[in-house]
Amino acid sequence: MSALPLFVAVFLACAVEAVEAATIVLAAGVAGEWRSAMAGVLAALGVLTVVVAVLGPALTLVPLGGLRLVVGGLLLVFGLQWLRKAVLRASGHKARHDESAIFEAELVAARGAPHQGRGAVTDWYAFTLAFKGVLLEGLEVVFIALTFGSNAGDVLLAALAAAASVALVAAAAFAVRAPLARVPENSMKFVVGVMLTGFGVFWGAEGAGARWPGSDAALLVLVPAVAAFALALVAGLRLVAVRPGGFAATGPGPDRAKEET
Amino acid sequence: MRARLRGFLRFWYEFVVGDDWRIALGVVLALAATSAVSRTSAPSWWLLPVAVVVLLPTSLWRAVRSARRG
Description:
The structure holds two protein chains of two kinds. Chain A is built from nine helices and no strands. Chain A is mainly alpha-helical. The radius of gyration of chain A is 19 Å and the shape is globular. Chain B has one domain. In chain B, 80% of the residues lie in helices and 0% in strands. In chain B, 26% of the residues are buried. The A-B interface holds A 69, 72-74, 76-78, 80-81, 83-85, 87-88, 93-94, 139-140, 197, 201, 204-205, 207-213, 218, 222, 225-226, 229-230, 233, 237, 240-241, 243, 258-259 and B 14-20, 23-24, 27-28, 31-32, 34-35, 37-39, 43-45, 47-49, 52-53, 55-57, 59-60, 63-64, 67-68, 70.
């Protein structure tokens, strides 16, 4: 697998997760206390570091065939779930992901919650909100970077793509101190769903013992074919009338943000 | 303690399986079929693409139908 598709796939997938985490942290900081929210971010990053330290070396010990079977299967399940939501959104059958609306909902929930201290943390709600948001979205970042990197035999490049993506989003969120509503998140999710599905099909089949015609070049057919198929499904579903009354607004809480991925 | 364990298991179920468990089941069955066919002399690479062509539209159709029912 060449370096560019690996970098692009990991960068985009991680950017989507980082935008969602940034929205939750911003809401926790604005409605509560910034210091507690940032402590929650650091605590979550600490847990994620431990996960990487344990999982990273463990993945390199697994035989490549078995790794590709398991990881390919997981990527395919992930990819199909992402693509399912992306197609539903693009065809108008599911509310589009709106970071501004999510930010407002998180803000309302955070302002209504009691902001009491616990131990060294002066605002426990802001701490746990930021911690959960970063941990949940971060787990997906770790999963994507490790699985793509280990399968492609270049964990370092995948890690660099993930780090660059998260750093860029964090810097943008810090600069504007507002939800990153201008990021084309729905389109990015569509692209990531296509890539996860394409790579999942390729690696899953290889791990199960299949031999692709053209070897790695099959990916150059698979990924565009998945994209064309998903776009055809969007066009087909646009012909089906949307439920009267539209969609409910997104609700509060980091668990909701996770569901909206 | 039991509620925490339940929450932990639910998190991993939602993380791995997601909204439609039939997709995860379909992928597992397609991988098993690919593995079985790979042991023969017949080509097996086409099974997962066919699984995608079947699983994604059926899952979408179920989602649209349940949304239309409200």
